[in-house]
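Example 3.2
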Amino acid sequence: MSNFREAQNQAHPTKTNTLLLGVMCVLILIVSMQIWLLTVSLNESLDGRNAVKWPAFWGSLALFIAGAALLRYLPSPIRRRIRVVEREAFPHAALAWRTLTISAVSLALAFAVWFMWSTIPLRLKDVGFHLSRQQLFWLTATPVLLGSFLRIPYGIIVSTFGSRRSYTAVTLLLLLPCLATGFAVKNPETPYWILLACAALTGIAGANFATSMGVVNLWFPKQTQGTALGINGLGNLGVTIAQFTIPLVIGFSLLGASETSAGGTTPKIHLENAAFIWIPFILICSATIWFGTKDNPAPAKTLASQLMAGKRLHTWVLSFLYFLTFGCFVAMGASLPLIIRDVFGQAPGGAPTPLYYAPWAAAVATFMRPLGGWLADKFGAGLITSIAIGTMALGGFSLSGFLQPNQFIGFFTLILIICGASGMGNGSVFKIIPHVLPKEAGAAIGIVSCLGALGGFLPPLFLGWTFDHFGSPAWAYTGMALFALLCLILNGWFYQRRRSPTCC
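Structure, written as tokens:
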């Protein structure tokens, strides 16, 4: 223990209270100054004046470091208590880790199918479709809808019908959107409403997330659930896989031979391959789940008992947190190609290629997710979630200052930071669910991930609306930052506050 901490522990209570009041007043002043600096920077940037942007950024960073340093001087009565984790038995460790591996790979496949509509709209014009910008944004946002609402039943079926049967069935269902999308984009005469219906059907792939997380949650004890669920979240890598793979496969026919257009020089685009490429992998993963995993021996739970999760306050609080962390990841992954094309199309030296940069945002979020789960196991989910959400809020306010054509590097760097924070928040939030709702964890995962995934539906539409009305996505990013501040308060009150009964 440091000399300062020893002296503080021996201090008179009145002196300790005075120190607490003084430190809190300084922290409030620092936060107020940061909000003022960010507001000034935003207003100046929206008016086209960027002279104050960098001074405000460095000033805000200095204030943040000063505030973090002051936390050391908070009196010990309000500091976090030592966490004691009760260790549970882990009799099926080998089977659990094998199930986790299979689940993570299958989830990556589901995410690749789910996000194929984040890449397809960029090439629809090249194969003869004529759609407006708002129509393209709807195509990228619509898959999230069905994927969100189906997560409730997809989360419940695991505890009701068994993990192996449930996960095999929902993986086989991925064949439907792949076949429908492949045949729809093959014909440029396909009506827009059919394209929209195919995009919506693709949402069933996103619902696999609830089943996958429910399966993993059944097999692992409490002391490793954060780490296991975080590793399973590597399935988010399917977004990056889709965004890297689809541009490669659409240049070849189904037999692998390259073709050219009618003019004879331009390679012909086989956009249907963006959907058909996943079919053999769906069959392989379905067979692997069926023969490589088992139903968890835990007794089946009735539908009524699982639906009790909808009556729990924490189900809805956690839905807010997940709406932000997962919604941000989904929205960035789905809309970033269009944002890069429309905002930075006139960048000096040539416009950035959207499909080269967009996959990295999803990759950063994916790899940060298991780290978030591991940190939550070690240091507490409430603390790690606060750090993640606070970073997202600061990044959201800062994005509006990097929306000029010559500011792509700064913009993309901030996007990577925000996505990394959202990935870390994904892992820590899912550590909280089985801690505060142990009896209805499966259903709670379905509800939380359902409402949270809607965070990937609304932001792309809001981004399109701000483009049409203001010519910039600045207000959409500012709205995300304000919502992050609200979530920071909720998480601090329920899951980080020392006196909270659900502090974790």
